User: What shape does this take?
Amino acid sequence: MASISAAIPALPRKYHAASIWALYVIGLCPAAWYFYQAATGGLGFNPVKEFEHLIGIWALRLIIATLAITPLRDLFGINWVRYRRALGLLAFYYVLMHFSVYLLLDLQLNFAAVGGDIARRPYITIGFAALLCLIPLAVTSNNWSIRKMGQGWIRLHKLIYLIAIGGAIHYVLAVKSVTSGPFAHIALIGILVAYRLIRRPLLNWKRGRRQPAQLAR
Amino acid sequence: MPAYRPPHISPSEITPKDIYLSRRSFIGAAAAAGFGLAAGGEAWAAPLSAAPGPYKLNEKLTPKEAVTTYNNFYEFGVNKEDPSQNSGAFKPTPWSVKVEGMVGKPKEFGLDEILKMKLEDRTYRMRCVEGWSMVIPWIGFPLSAILDQVEPLGSAKYVAFETVVRPEEMPGQGGLFQPLPWPYIEGLRMDEARHPLTILAVGLYGETLPNQNGAPIRLVVPWKYGFKSIKSIVKIKLVEEQPQTTWKNSNAREYGFYSNVNPAVDHPRWSQATEQRIGEGGFFGTKRVDTLPFNGYANEVASLYSGMDLKANY
Assistant: This one.
């Protein structure tokens, strides 16, 4: 497995900061591109719904990416932890955009309708709850909070598993039938969350296997 | 069955003066359409002429491009643009529709015979269960015209419909993750089927139906959610019991047999109080309008359901 990490050339340390900023820029490209398309008639005859859905799907993809960081390191030795904060914040921005499009362009600030939807439509209730849960994570994503909160920070940020599951349920309930597209996203979230359940025993087992080899040396 | 009285229409309304004055070109176009079809089935988007129908609708038509590129027709894929992009290989000619079951004279109608029916312009609102709507100028004829020809038996209480199955021409019917079982099936109660608003459409915007809109013949029931208006019909069967329907089979809690447009009965997952008019307003300023009971056709059809609990019979 170490061979996989060796196959990917390590990025020199001096480029780390620049690569993170590049990720922010690249990450916002889909939103900018879809917005341009929607505004110029490139997204068909229901551009609001189309834009809303595309932004939502990208939010899920970014959440999937943040969840993939740990298994990539555990199983393949690829350490991309430095990108996790950017991916998480990008996911938050996309969820915020997704909700803003729904509020401003879809329901056009009809707050009674928005309130009714949140109260009565389970998929919107769940989606909105996930958005609310993302706020404390985004607010405490800075280094100062991480230092200040210590173990509490780690516990708080476990919320992302709940948010990811909520996002998957929101997606399943919003589509008329689960076809290959939704299935792929939901399956990935399921696998990545389930991985957390087997992670400890798996790592212990791996460590156990390494031990005898070290003794022999 | 309640008696239905069509609204009284003055003769001057039946044929607008401009059409009357251009009747020679109209006849010419009709003849050309006939020749076009006789020449071969390949040239399908043929002009189709029709007499003005009995229903007037003073609402802005949805642009033709929207009507023909924003579609739900899962046989060609689940995305709105799929039907227009993936239906090129579909062959709507030759075609025939079997009408059978509890009838005195079962019959198979060829497409040429269908197109010789007395065609009318029928501009109807179309409300999708997903919360969007269009205004579409259909060309068609009352379903009752075909039912009359096969002489329904007294025991026939419902009409069942079936869409064609051709995985080789309809990409959505092949591959993994099929969204629905095929064939797509639908049904109406006999009085709904015989209602003068219920038509079999063979065209829209003055031409034969594009593949993505259900070529060559489809049902249009304007007071029901769009999925009731089954497309590319190959079989119509008169039956005694309420027939199975595709969406009810797939999720009975969310989609009922009746599926009448009703702003007071929400879909379990979303509101049906308002609808978005496709093709109007664009990205900034979507046009939302209130959804009307029976999609605005309450005067014509509400009596069909008098005494029925519409919340229980959604």
